[in-house]
Amino acid sequence: MNHLEFERPITELEAKIADLARLAETLGTASLEAELEAMRARADELRRNTFKSLNAWQKTQVARHPGRPHCVDYLAGLIDEFVELRGDRSFGDDQTVIGGLGRFRGRPIVAVGIEKGHDTATRLKHNFGAARPEGYRKAVRLMDLAERFNLPVISFADTAGAYPGAASEERGVAEAIARSIERGLSLGVANVAVITGEGGSGGALALAAANKVLMLEHSVYSVISPEGANSILWRGARTPGEAASAMKITAQDLLKLNVVDRIVAEPSGGGHADPETTIRSVGDAVEAELRGLDGLSAEDLRRQRRDRFYAIGRLA
User: Fold this and answer.
1) What is the per-residue pLDDT across 10-60, written as a single tens digit (0 to 9) for each?
2) CB 39, CB 17: distance < 8 Å
3) Rounded to whole angstroms, how far apart are CA atoms 180 and 86?
4) What is the pLDDT of residue 226?
5) Residues lower than pLDDT 70 in the chain
6) What domain range is 151 assigned to?
7) One domain for residues 9 and 158
8) N or C: which end of the chain has fewer CB within 10 A?
């Protein structure tokens, strides 16, 4: 597993525990068990205290951790009988955006999300989570399908931003993102979005114009990356960490500003430490939000969505 710099004291202690455990096994004695238990307790406490006090830049690093659950993991762990639908019926199929039909805890739904990939091969396949215009047009097609058959939409956003290359611009990426946001806002069915890692710019917002927007505890959501903000606003004179703090991009900051509706707690050590628990927690939160939207008419859902976005940034 990849370890972040601020996790070093934890990993060093865990390495000592592993060494002592091997020694105890070799000696075949239980005399070291008490010491091992004490060291494990110290490691657990250190992990809890470390992740309880992360700053905005450290949370950004956790949000980007390659070991966090990705879209394909949420689809596999939460959506039964998933049938992927491909293509935008205009240009092609972008495998950065994955979506289709399935059942979420017995409820038929449409699921769509942005996949970054776990290793070199899958990162190349999914373009490192940077969607092209046809990916967002696929998302619009899926949302159209959801409304046609009266199915709620669940979306998972984890991206540094849409693909900014020349081909993407030539095919109208800005318009495609705008259409996806517009479709999310105008849906006559319930939609719940989850920021699972890095919610970057319009690339994430395109899938997060929803009735309810959830964020994992150590995820981030911003109009630009801290590195980009530092470069553009301060010409690189400060640090990405200072930019991250000033931008208010953490789940805790955004809940206060009414940008998101719920924070989903992560296991001690972050989502990458226990992906299965993370996926289950996201499922529980999504289920609760969908239940809260049950029974609302199409017009009521549009009104609720409109009111929540109008409330963003209002502190009184």
Assistant:
1) 878 778 878 777 777 776 666 677 777 888 888 888 888 888 889 999 999
2) yes
3) 16
4) 94
5) 1-2, 27-31, 315-316
6) 60-310
7) no
8) C
CA angle 265, 39, 30 (to 5 degrees): 125
Residues 18 and 162: their CA atoms lie apart, in Å, by 42
pLDDT of residue 34: 74
**In this structure, what are the phi and psi dihedrals at residue 56, rounded to the nearest 5 degrees?**
-60, -40
Query: Do residues 136 and 276 both lie within one domain?
Result: yes
List Cβ neighbours of 265 (8 Å cut-off, separation of 6 or more): 217, 281
DSSP state of 250: B
**Which residue is it, tokens 């390659």?**
66
Q: Are residues 199 and 169 in the same domain?
A: yes
Residues 32 and 129 in one domain: no
Q: Is 157 helix (H, G, I), strand (E, B) or coil?
A: strand
R_g of the chain computed on alpha carbons: 21
Burial class of 241 by CB neighbour count within 10 A (0 to 12, 13 to 18, 19+): middle
d(CA 159, CA 68): 13
pLDDT in tens, 144-186: 999 999 999 999 999 999 999 999 999 999 999 999 999 999 9
Place of tokens 């289920």: 287
pLDDT given for residue 150 in this prediction:
97
Q: Give the burial class of 268: count Cβ atoms within 10 A of its Cβ; 0-12 exposed, 13-18 middle, 19 or more buried.
A: middle
